[in-house]
Amino acid sequence: MSKVAAFGEVMMRLEVPRYATLSQSDQLTYSFSGTGVNVGSALTRYGHHSQMVTVLPSNPLGDAAVAYLRRLGLSTDYVARGGKYVGSYFLEHGFGARPSRVTYTDRWGSSFNTATFDAASFAQVASDIDALHLCGITLAMNDNVRAAMKELAAAVKAAGGTVIFDCNYRPSLWGEDGYKLARPHYEELLQLADLVFMNEKDALHVLGMSTHKEDRAEQLEELIPLVAEKYKLKAAAGTHRTINTDHTHTLRGYLYKEGQFYYSHPLTFAVYDRVGAGDAYASGIIHGELTEAEPAHAVEFAAYAAMLAHTVAGDTPLATEQEVLDAMKISTRDVSR
Known about the structure:
The chain contains 12 helices and 14 strands. It has 337 residues and is of the alpha/beta class.
């Protein structure tokens, strides 16, 4: 199996129990997460060797985060220690008409986002891995982090590795004129990327493309091939989600590769915890790419991985490869005995 590194921040998730709001509850539970943590830990469950490239403080909170990463099976060989803080966010679970809500705190002052990154260590990482995962959330932090992302991606590319970029544009992190500010940085990362996670909204708003089509599926099929051609991508993938009137969700995944679209079956399911489900989908696609799976199988596997991620608490996908394969068999959707 492959060696994969994820460059990004490790965050503390502070969760209000059940469906209470922050103003109602006097209790919180905590764990550690982040896009790279979620994708990397899922890939370890599929048999790959995954590691974080990040910075955590040299204090008991940093020690707890390192221990948590190790419990998930992630290597911490490239976890540097320094700075003072772990970025954190508060999660309130939505119910019915009330959506879930995330409130960030200490994000810009975290050890990762104030770190000085070393080119020599990036060269070592690049020579040690087969693939690198990067995320648009990290890209939104500051110029120092953005420069480090591009430097590491270029080093991995030069070493013959695969660069994976999840667009993951978050308006709240970019602020006013966010699309205008983000566009040049996204374009630079896309030029270095091999596999990209995005949909038609990213093409329209972040990249400034246009279409006369109004249907989302038609927009996707027009714009994604243009993006893939312009940036010489090996593959692009993403999902479309519908929230139904009975509060179930319907999800359909796509994979565009070698000039052809592949789609998963639409999956409808109840939601226990939505956060991190997109990372589960991404990990399924990445697993398919790293193992050279047939595209039709890879996109179906990824969609089921995302569905299963909605059924467990926490950001981090927990399903093994066999559990995803079992879920793909209709006859096994009963009590496992």
